[in-house]
Amino acid sequence: MTENKTAFPLPAEAADLLIAAHDGDVALLYLYIARTGALDAERAAGALCRTAREIDAAAEKLRRMGLLDGMPAPVSTQRVPEDTLPEYRAEDLIRFAAEDPQLQAIYREAEQVFGRKLSPADMKMLAGLYKHLGLPAEVLFTLLHYCAERAAERRPGSVPSPRSVEKEGYDWANREIMTLEQADDYIRFRREQRELTGQVKEVLNIRGRDLSKTEREYVERWLGMGFPPEAVAIAYDRTLVKLGKLHWSYMDKIFQSWHAKRLHTPAEIEAGDSRRRAPAAGGAANSGRVDLRELDEIFDKI
User: Fold this and answer.
1) Is-contact 179 137, C-beta < 8 A?
2) 292 has a pLDDT exceeding 60
3) What residue segments make up the domains of the chain, in order of their start?
4) Nearest to 172 by CA among 160, 151, 195, 189
5) What is the mean pLDDT of residues 31-43?
6) Phi/psi of residue 198, nearest 5 degrees
7) Kindly report the CA angle at 197 between 194 and 201, in degrees rounded to 5?
8) 3-state SS track over 188-205
């Protein structure tokens, strides 16, 4: 007579995600949690013959896949800092590559992008992006070629550094870019932003150099508010008339004022100015024009 054991369901959606992940550690941990109802890294490590660090990495990948929603973080004495990839040992890397054809493919693709054989540090970085941050192989392929494209744009013929790939990988993971469609949408968005930023640089007469970090933050904020380069030209002109030079924080106050009044395009801004120049009888008109006296007070405090 066979022993009667309690069965647990495996949702089809979860099964599809686990199959697509191509990661045995992730699938094992999911089955372990589903069977035990607990997420204890040390116990899971012993039961699955894995290190606590490997269990942490698998749990993080499950969380990013949405399969640990509502579950607590794994209990472990070996926590990996959020901005640091795990320090895999050489034997770990050998086992990972032997067990996972997807990781082997990532290594081959990276060698093509870097134009050389991978170092152990390169392999640790790529394994960390794949296993710890949970970026799927096809997304990592796209990321590698996006980094190569950006490196070539900055200096023709150059290749991306492993550090730039790692940094970009963290950014994609934080943005939860986990599918090819999401990756393509994000790359398209970044290209559009770079094109608009280039137009803004022309408007501001910035040539022959890149924007500084602070300057880029200003420009990205204005673009994010919905202001086209043509609106930047208007704000720049008014800043030059008032101050005789480019002043970033002064322009930022202009944009904040327009944004609060929902005036973003040149037509909307000029219409707001027209209302101010011809106020309605019996009351103050709603205006999109910046109150320069108010800005003068702000500027004096800068």
Assistant:
1) no
2) no
3) 12-64, 90-178, 214-301
4) 189
5) 74
6) -60, -40
7) 135
8) HHHHHHHHHHHHHHHHCC
